[in-house]
């Protein structure tokens, strides 16, 4: 298989060069690829053959695939989106490539010890990584620090950079295989390496060797590990170095390749487009300016025109704690030349605002790229790019009408929406082959190339034999998940129970706590009434918490404490089981999602930009219980309100509360006995021998006024959870809704998303790759 991929890979690159196809480069600090063997086999059309061959040799294919280590170079949704996009680009025959960092350690491996999260290093390169190819010949020098001098030469101001630190950026290329089409694109991952010739040895000084080792270490640190934070910004100098390292190496390699086409730089944007995945790679704007001005000797205006036409920006969050702002001093010290350029961009932008937008004069300080000694990366990205997109309709409208409103006034034509998507090849064909087969038997296989064709299933929604087939698949998948849980945790789950899952990073806004409060409430009801008629439920959590996020880690401990109590209860455990499955990752997601009945998407409205877990679960037949947030809004539009369980504050209501300041969490605690009975268990040693263990959670709700409106939405959540149980009791009705969800999920294939990027932002067309004849 690898040989065929490499042959197609070469052919693809050659065809792109010959056709001078416009290339897209997707710059992302994260690519959460998961495993590649099975999905590459699928895309190469070899999966069935391999299955049969392995079986005939006496191997279990699943066990063989399990040998591959996940490539976990991402935290969560943002990194997984980048991976789904690469799959869709190649599958749509689009010339689009990834630019990322080859972290030596990916996202930490999570263990649960005594209910607490423990982080272990993810040494994914320990055994060699079969998919990568090191390209020493394409190594690039990246420069940090030093000083900048300017002088006038031939009437032009020239800048020269001295005393900088040199870092060698070495690319490791990973092939990205398209589905059934010969296209193989490239994910280029950069590794920071030192060279002996970039270090000055003085033979007279014996300790130089140790200095060299220190120096080598300091350089290799740049691509050593992925920062384990999601939707949070930490102003760590090493993280900023990583960002520049990616940007500079990536841009230099793109310009080198472009120059081989012998086209003038003024036409760069006809051949190249750079999409940045969130603000992390925003330094592409000043770095491209630097390369064009200092290296290519273009004037400012020409360089700016090119930059503005080449760079496009995707925003992923409106959470203020996630918006990047770097200290001006840090930028100045690390990138003295870039600092001058950013300063100039800012001056020109602010002047333009002053003269052209007199009505915005009182907003200039708020819109500036540099203000109060901080560099605002999202402002830099917006000013320097031709397209600014949000990732779901609601998110884009919040950007335009609230968070980035003044920028929308200045650049209305730049704003657009691109609702996220997921690759149905990995998340349906690979993860749930049984379901894929049942679908194909009903409507044929056209949906595999054109996922919107899944709507053909609508006419089968009330067909009883199709319903039976769908129900059987779900049940079989529950048995498989039950076996995994039995093996790993020695806990037996009821295969007739409602499998209720919340799998995503642990974060206050995602409200795992609200889910847990419902569980504790059910537990209290069972204690009060041992004969309570409850449809059995299995609650599954999967979530990593950022190691420095202590609230999130306390929530993990609380989930485990509640699970321990409930699962060991002689009566209640037959109705409720609670499982925290450790080390949530792409591979674990692929096991859980096919077995899920209920998809928990319960973020505080306005806080989840899109979500993609919601899409994966819908595509696998789970019904959503969710707030009107992110892409949940679009799911509800598609399936109709009778096929989704919606509850809670709307985003406008959340904004109104935030403006007026008249939310009083304490009133909900005082006035709702059920809520009090739940919350008091956190601080009376019921779930922990220690009465201070969960007090921070309790205090954040009562004394810090419950930033995420958990108490406000509790009552509506409990009520709608009761509707869920009622609906589930009528299996025909439930399966009917499940089929409608699958049928409407085609819209959320990332093929649709990528087609929209290609048409509306990138202006690129497919390039067909010919068939290779291999002898
Ligand atoms: C899809 C996915 C996510 C994103 O989940 P959300 O529910 O959208 O936050 C995170 N982690 C992994 C491993 C995923 O596969």
Automatic annotation (TrEMBL):
SUPFAM superfamilies referenced in this protein's UniProt entry, alphabetically: UDP-Glycosyltransferase/glycogen phosphorylase
CC per GO annotation: cytoplasm
Primary enzyme class: transferase
GO annotation terms (biological process): glycogen catabolic process
Cofactor (UniProt): pyridoxal 5'-phosphate
TM ranges: none
Keyword annotations from UniProtKB, A to Z: Carbohydrate metabolism, Glycosyltransferase, Pyridoxal phosphate, Transferase
A Pfam family the protein falls into: Phosphorylase
Residues that bear N6-(pyridoxal phosphate)lysine: 616
The reaction(s) this protein catalyses: [(1->4)-alpha-D-glucosyl](n) + phosphate = [(1->4)-alpha-D-glucosyl](n-1) + alpha-D-glucose 1-phosphate
This enzyme's EC code(s): 2.4.1.1
One MF annotation (Gene Ontology) recorded for this entry: pyridoxal phosphate binding
InterPro entries: Glycg_phsphrylas, Glyco_trans_35, Pyridoxal_P_attach_site
Keyword Glycosyltransferase belongs to the record: yes
Domain of life: Bacteria
Protein family: Belongs to the glycogen phosphorylase family.
Main function: Allosteric enzyme that catalyzes the rate-limiting step in glycogen catabolism, the phosphorolytic cleavage of glycogen to produce glucose-1-phosphate, and plays a central role in maintaining cellular and organismal glucose homeostasis.
Protein name per Swiss-Prot or TrEMBL: Alpha-1,4 glucan phosphorylase
Organism of derivation: Halalkalibacter akibai (strain ATCC 43226 / DSM 21942 / CIP 109018 / JCM 9157 / 1139) (Bacillus akibai)
Species classification: Bacteria, Bacillati, Bacillota, Bacilli, Bacillales
